[in-house]
Every structure is written in structure tokens, then in C-alpha cells.
Predict the 3D structure of the following.
Amino acid sequence: MYIKVSVIPNAKNASIIKIDATSYKAKVNAVAVNGKANNRLIEMFAEYFKINKSKLKIIKGFNNRNKLISVENL
């Protein structure tokens, strides 16, 4: 399964908002430097879906606010 995520880095509070079945908006409480926001995003979605972090992978948008994430076995 693939999900589209619009990310807001360096937010005060971390949260995930479901827009529709495959689109989400995520506020990440980490800066977008050296992949910290991407790593925090993966941690947040692992908690949200209650799966291991290794099941999630950013496919597209490493240096962009709009990302495509692959989710295994959901």
C-alpha cells in the first residue's frame, strides 16, 4: 500500500491527520535537517499504524514536503 503525506516540519506538536484513504497530513516536531524530520515521520506512522518501522519506507520526496510512503502488510 502507498500513502501520500504532506509534511509540516518543526511543528510544536506532532500529529497525523487522515484526509482520505491514502492521503495524510503530518505535523512533525523535528527539524528538516539531516533527515531528522523524515526519521521522525517514519516513527510517527509506525506508531499510528501499530507496525514496525522497518515496514515503512519513503519512496519519493526525501527533500520535499510531499512524500510517498510504502507501507508493507497493512
